[in-house]
């Protein structure tokens, strides 16, 4: 698996980014229809957490099979992997986070999902006319993007690095506007916000489409909602 995927500029259509989905793919389809998403030309980029909490988690594999859909591995995908691989897991936390649907699957189905989730990168880098845009699930543990990518490409990603990429809420908590060098913008999810929140060049785009909010589809060309 490649923990970093780099995408060249989309010269045919739009690149749209979306926050956490959490098993609400019908709502996501409706949001895409509203902006006339064209799968023959456009691409959809996800900051992870495709599963848990919602009623349509099992659709995740169908979405991941689409050539126009790219996602990073969120902490909820990582929880499923930990269960299947026999790693330590706080099952009370996992159930509270919506993982019951996964635990109810048969062993073979669990393995099928875990193997697909293991193929997801931890970071995406997308070229745009105005410079590269990065995607992580939660936050960047380095001040410079170019310092993070070699760490993610190691055979074993340092646990503290992975933890920040998939779990950290510190930037939002501290209202940290330092930003991440070498990127036009970094797009993250993990923590729901009422509206897109920008701290430095870090864009928090999980606007609760899976809950009581709405899905924001951010156009990477303009960094504006589509």
From TrEMBL:
One of its GO terms (cellular component) is cytoplasm. It comes from the Bacteria. SUPFAM superfamilies: Metallo-dependent phosphatases. Residues 16-193 form the Calcineurin-like phosphoesterase domain. This is Serine/threonine protein phosphatase. It comes from Pseudomonas bharatica CSV86. PANTHER family: METALLOPHOSPHOESTERASE, ZINC-DEPENDENT ENDOPOLYPHOSPHATASE. Pfam families: Metallophos. Gene3D superfamilies: 3.60.21.10. GO terms for molecular function: bis(5'-nucleosyl)-tetraphosphatase (symmetrical) activity; phosphatase activity. GO terms for biological process: RNA decapping. The lineage of its organism: Bacteria, Pseudomonadati, Pseudomonadota, Gammaproteobacteria, Pseudomonadales. InterPro entries: Ap4A_hydrolase (IPR050126), Calcineurin-like_PHP (IPR004843), Metallo-depent_PP-like (IPR029052).
